[in-house]
Amino acid sequence: MKDGKPIVWILDDEWKNHQMENEIFRDNGMTLKVTNSKSLLKDLPEYAPCADGVIVQVGFNCGEEIISQLDTCKVMATYGVGYNHIDLTAANRKGIPVCNVPDYCIEEVSDHTVALVLAVVRRIKSYGNQVRNGHWDALDTMPIKRIKDMTIGLLGFGRIARAVAYKLRSFGPRLIAHDKYVHREEFAEYGVVPVSREQLIQQSNLLSLHIPLTPETENILNLENMKLMPKGAFIVNTCRGGVINEDDLLSLLESGHLGGAGLDVLKQEPPNADYPLLNMSELLITPHASYISESSVDELRKRTCQHILDGVKGNSLSNVVNLSELFDGHASTK
């Protein structure tokens, strides 16, 4: 609290405009402060000790150094589904609940995933580059498979993966998935065959990734298992960049074992100009944009602010991703 008003502190290197948040918190008698990485060193000692609520943008590393100084913080929230950028162990030590928004962009991410699937299978990037360079030859970009004849695999079968399966069914491929936390009956509802992780990798002509980034899933796709995919297979990733070993992916694209990939996420965001993956002709990269639409961003901002309002006012919290023993019934995962 500062000057008799609760302080909401936003840590954000991505969004430049926080007018909506400012209006929401002002109308609730709270003061907003926005800090980016460049101003963090100056703002940290002034705002960390007195912040009542903290919002952390995806990609802003909020670790022990920051969280250990949150002496009056009642709640933290992240803009989005993922929360690996927040040190939950440090938050637990301070007794601070951390909330996410796990279901605000299911339609957007599943649409983007399907768009990447179509783009890489139909080799849209290669065709576009060809025409831009003055060529006109429909046959120089083969092989192209009929989607109906493919097996498409889903690693993870949560909300987004289920929406992807529903949307892909109309194209007629065989759909398989692996998720050890999902009952077999739930796969059948979407016309998806449950398989082991090994079977998923070995059978998928296209593998779409829908898992959170955790110590267990980091580099879960590596040279050893990606080599087991059918020759010419594709990978689409709209979850987190760290689940793929990018050096291994590059190697298999260069060798021709993999036919291409569509990535909305990278291990390093944004990438440097000399990032090796940027120059691969069969690799389509979008800038972590799968969640974007006007509706989804507005919803995300409002629901994230509501977490802070609830926490500061002492109301019941939803979508708490830590401290489950203190917030039983509200904890949520992706």
Short note summarizing the structure:
The protein has 334 residues and is of the alpha/beta class.
What oligomeric state do the depicted chains represent? single chain
Overall number of structural domains: 2
The percent range for strand residues is 15-25%
Total helical segments: 12
CATH architecture designation of the largest domain: 3-Layer(aba) Sandwich
Average pLDDT score: 94
The CATH first-level class of the largest domain comes to Alpha Beta
CATH superfamily of the largest domain: NAD(P)-binding Rossmann-like Domain
How many beta-strand segments?
12
Helicity level: 25-40%
Structural class determined from secondary elements: alpha/beta
Low-confidence stretches: 327-334
Summarize the structure in words:
The chain has 334 residues and is an alpha/beta fold. It has 2 domains: 118 residues, Rossmann fold, CATH 3.40.50.720; 180 residues, NAD(P)-binding Rossmann-like Domain (Rossmann fold), CATH 3.40.50.720. Helix content is 34%, strand content 16%. Strand 9, helix 10 and strand 10 form a beta-alpha-beta unit. Helix 1 packs parallel to helix 12 and helix 5 crosses helix 7. The radius of gyration is 22 Å and the shape is elongated. 40% of the residues are buried.
Overview features:
alpha/beta, elongated, Rossmann fold, 12 strands, 12 helices, seven-stranded parallel beta sheet, 334 residues, five-stranded parallel beta sheet
Topology:
Layout: E1 7-11, H1 19-27, E2 31-35, H2 37-47, E3 53-57, H3 64-67, E4 75-79, H4 88-94, E5 98-99, H5 106-121, H6 124-132, E6 151-155, H7 159-168, E7 174-178, H8 184-188, E8 193-194, H9 197-203, E9 206-209, H10 223-226, E10 233-237, H11 246-255, E11 258-263, E12 283-285, H12 294-313
Helix pairs in contact: 1-12, 5-7
